[in-house]
Description:
This protein has about 110 residues and is mainly β. The chain has helices at about 70-75, 80-85, and strands spanning about 25-35, 40-45, 55. A three-stranded antiparallel β-sheet has the order 1-2-3, with no helix packed on it.
Amino acid sequence: MGDAPDGCGQVPRTVPEDIRTILVDFITNVLREETSNELRATGVITQLLDGSSKTVDATKKIVVSGAVYCSSAIMMRGSREELVQFNINGKIDLPGAGRSLTDYLVSSTLEY
């Protein structure tokens, strides 16, 4: 379609007004509150590249993403057995989280 039929070029992106996207260097903590025996994420604490910290509060949902690389590592922070080895008190035990995810390095070579 258009000037780039092979899928290369600009892709229109629309973001609804009620969604706020923030790019940060590191998420150091997910803020949460417990209601009716359920944990609910309420925000995140981030560490920026300059070493400063910033707290971001959420009113609806929090989506934490490491893009293509590191998503598996983010998800693997769920097994209580693994966390206690580092003196981390896990709030929810999710031993299978991230187990089936894999980072794939894709490389292609064209020969003529």
